[in-house]
User: What shape does this take?
Amino acid sequence: MEIINPDKNKFLYSLLFPLLFIAILWIIEIIKEVYHLNFIENFGIIPLKASGLLGIIFSPLIHSGYPHLYSNTIPIIITGTILFYFYNEIAYQVFFLVYFLTGIWVWLFARDASHIGASGLVYGFVSFIFFSGIIRRNNQLMALSLLMVFLYGSSIWGIFPHFFPQENISWESHLMGLIAGFILSVFFRKKGMQRIVYDWEFEEDDETDRESNLKIIYYRKEDEENKNISDEKE
Assistant: This one.
């Protein structure tokens, strides 16, 4: 008889949407390269121009070539899987809000050029995961914040135009994605995993605070003792 591992199923489910999104990106890129289609000018974000509004929807799906797409593939799979695994309650909302907020702000504030690529999403997801761990102060989520620093900490330079003076690098998308991720980490701070607060952290006169903190997980010594008693009975 096969034993079903819930964590394994959750991981596979969390991996599904990021992989599906990446598959769409690669299919589009292959079609573009094989048929020599000019998606960049037609579907990129061109700031403050009506013709560039379509780019808010389509620009993250378009890349300048296979190297450009490959540079975004692994980060989207990693950060997207983390997002759907640890923040499954709000994962779709965060994904699409980063997607559209980044595009809208690039259209409003970026320099006059055709902005394409999914790097804004990468910056948005990294930013959301990093700041959410810090804000929530949950040990697991804070570990993910450190992981983001380890994996993508050097990418912070990508938001500064001084380091990317070339016209073919949209540092604006990086910056807008980072800002979107931070804002969403604050906006959704009460949803999903929260800091574990132990009983001994409260004083006797903190009963009101304890009752009002509905989203906090409590650990009570008597609960463990009751569990041990019930285990012995079994």
The chain is about 65% helix and 5% strand. The domain at 6-187 is CATH 1.20.1540.10 (Rhomboid-like fold).
